[in-house]
Amino acid sequence: MTSGTASTASTASARPSGHALIRAGRGSFLLHRRAAVAAAALAVLLAAVCVAYLCAGESWVAPSEVLKVLAGEPSAQELVVGTLRLPRMVVGLLAGAAFGAAGALIQTVARNPLASPDIIGVTQGAGAVTVGAMTFGLTSFAVLPYVSVAGGVLAALLVHAFAWRGGLHATRFVLIGIGFAVALRSVTQLFLTKGDYLVAQQAQVWMTGSLNGRGWAEAAPLGWALLVLLPAVLWAARAQRTVSLDDDTATALGIRLGRTRLGLVAVGVVLASMATGAAGPVDFVALLAPQIARRLTRTSQIPLFCSALLGAVIVVLGDLLARKLLAPTELPVGVLTAAVGAPYLIWLIIRGHRTGGRASGGHA
User: Fold this and answer.
1) pTM of this structure
2) Which of 93, 191, 194, 204 is the most interior residue, by most CB within 10 Å?
3) 52 and 60 Cβ atoms separated by less than 8 Å
């Protein structure tokens, strides 16, 4: 055997099972085959759901006309597809992807499937500050996503401060987060009682998580924010691997776990807060998407890209069903995601109890 053959053989033997080595110039990276197939399938599913979303409504639009509008060609359906349906769908797509990625990052750090932004108080903090701003006259949906970030970050800092006891135990982190979520919902209700009646009605609909009336004014800030955060998200996808190591191994390798975990949580909090500002607190998307993605890919860590794709599919498909199930009455998309997510949350808690709390053990 030549030295080159021996080197190839040793590389192959060191490669984790189910991974392919992809070479790009002088660099190379490992690609999980099942995760790549799942991501491609989810991308196709998302494209199909988006086309169905643009076709369905009070009037049916042929897929050929939808494709014409998307391609920028003249079409009689420009108003229905390009002005009414497309911006709303883009908001749902971006918000869903942000929720899915945020849930994946926070669950990775906490090592707990219950630790999603809508369970530990992040979206409730974003919602409370946003509703407060709406109560005092700030109703521009172009500005509200940035206000939501302040609320989400503040809520995350408070949960972290109260949960820290020489370390961040996952069970304590989740329980304190749930407590803050309840308290912040009460603050939101207080703002609703103090505000103008019409503003309170608008805020109440927003709080259920709704895409009704959303347009390019909401899609643009969210899209730019996600574009700015893209380098941080790409870093987070790589950093997830180090966070999955135990503390002793990571320390031996010279990895600063504290900073890495803090960075991942910060990216997750900002993503969830921006999505909340644009679409409202659409509950359980950040809880469901990462866990479904992990079961699809069967990876040791939660796949970030698949979680984002699944989050987008859940929100866009949920809003499509919300528009059609009781037509002409439109349900908020948050009602449908809660109807699916609440039983799943109960199942997670029961399963964790039966397995002796293993789902909630460990340190964040």
Assistant:
1) 0.84
2) 93
3) no
